C-alpha cells in the first residue's frame, strides 16, 4: 500500500480502501458533488460505482482513486482513469471531481499531475478527457495537465469537448 500512495504538498492520492465506501456512496449520491454528470446516483448505483472504482484500481495504478486533503484528513474527491468506449474505441478516460468547498484551490491540478507522473511510469498511450463545453474550470484543469483539444463529439447523446494526452512521447 505504501508504494501506491502519492503525496503532494497539500494532498494524498491513493487507491480506494473498503473504509472509503461510505464516503464515496454519500458523494456519488450528492447533487453538488455530481454536478456536470448526467445524473445523481441512487444508493445501489453508488455502491456499484465504488465497487467498480476498486476493481479498476486493482489493475490500473492510476485508476480513479481518492484524493485526501492532508490538513483535514478528509477524502475530498477523486482523480484518475476509467475505461470507456467512445466512437467504437476503448479508451482510458481521465476524470476528476472535488467537493464544492475545496474547488478553486488548484487541488484537481495538483492531485492529477502527481497521479499522471505515476501513470507515466507504467503506461504508454493515449488518454481521453470528456468535458461539457460549459465546464470552463474542468477544461482549464485538463489543459494544465497537458491535454490538447481534439474535437467536439457526442458522448451518450450529449455534445462534449474531447481532449487527448499521449503519454510516453516525452
Ligand atoms: C472541475 C474541478 C475538478 C476543478 O478543480 P479545481 O481544483 O477547483 O480547479 P482549479 O482550482 O485549478 O481551477 C481551475 C481553473 O478554472 C477556473 N475556474 C474555476 N471555476 C470557474 C468557473 N465557474 N468559471 C470559469 N472559470 C472557473 C479557475 O480560476 C482556474 O483557472 P486557472 O487555471 O486560470 O487558475 C472542480 O471545480 C470540480 O470538482 N467541479 C465539479 C466536478 C467536475 O466538473 N468535474 C469534471 C467533470 S469533466
How would you describe this structure in keywords?
binds coenzyme A, 3-stranded antiparallel β-sheet, N-acetyltransferase, 5-stranded antiparallel β-sheet, Protein N-acetyltransferase, RimJ/RimL family, 170 residues, alpha+beta
Q: What is the helix/strand order?
A: EEHHEEEHEHEE
The CATH architecture is 3-Layer(aba) Sandwich
Number of strands: 8
The H-level CATH homologous superfamily, spelled out, is Gcn5-related N-acetyltransferase (GNAT)
Strand order of the largest sheet: 1-2-3-4-5
Name the poorly predicted regions: none
Number of helices: 4
Shape: globular
Provide mean pLDDT, rounded: 95
Explain how this protein is built.
Residues 11-166 form the N-acetyltransferase domain. This is Protein N-acetyltransferase, RimJ/RimL family. This protein is of the alpha+beta class and 170 residues long. The protein is 29% helix and 34% strand. The protein has one domain: Gcn5-related N-acetyltransferase (GNAT) (Aminopeptidase, 3-Layer(aba) Sandwich). The protein has four helices and eight strands, in the order ββααβββαβαββ. Strand 7 (148-155) and strand 8 form a beta hairpin. The model has no long low-confidence stretch (mean pLDDT 95). Coenzyme A binds at residues 35-36, 95-98, 103-109, 131, 135-138, 140-141, 144. Residues 35-36, 95-98, 103-109, 131, 135-138, 140-141, 144 line the site of coenzyme A.
Amino acid at each position: 500500500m505504501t508504494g501506491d500512495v502519492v503525496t503532494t504538498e497539500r494532498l494524498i492520492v491513493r487507491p480506494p480502501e473498503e473504509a472509503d465506501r461510505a464516503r464515496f456512496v454519500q458523494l456519488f449520491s450528492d447533487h453538488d458533488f455530481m454536478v456536470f454528470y448526467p445524473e445523481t446516483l441512487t444508493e445501489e448505483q453508488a455502491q456499484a460505482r465504488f465497487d467498480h472504482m476498486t476493481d479498476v484500481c486493482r489493475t490500473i495504478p492510476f485508476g480513479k482513486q481518492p484524493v485526501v486533503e492532508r490538513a483535514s484528513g478528509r477524502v475530498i474527491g477523486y482523480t484518475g482513469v476509467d475505461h470507456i468506449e467512445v466512437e467504437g474505441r476503448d479508451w482510458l478516460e481521465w476524470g476528476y471531481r472535488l467537493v464544492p468547498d475545496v474547488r478553486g484551490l488548484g487541488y484537481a491540478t495538483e492531485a492529477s499531475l502527481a497521479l499522471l507522473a505515476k501513470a507515466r511510469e507504467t503506461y504508454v498511450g493515449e488518454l481521453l478527457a470528456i468535458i461539457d463545453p460549459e465546464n470552463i474550470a474542468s477544461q482549464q484543469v485538463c489543459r494544465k495537465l497537458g491535454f490538447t483539444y481534439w474535437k467536439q463529439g457526442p458522448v451518450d447523446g450529449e455534445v462534449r469537448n474531447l481532449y487527448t494526452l499521449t503519454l510516453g512521447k516525452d
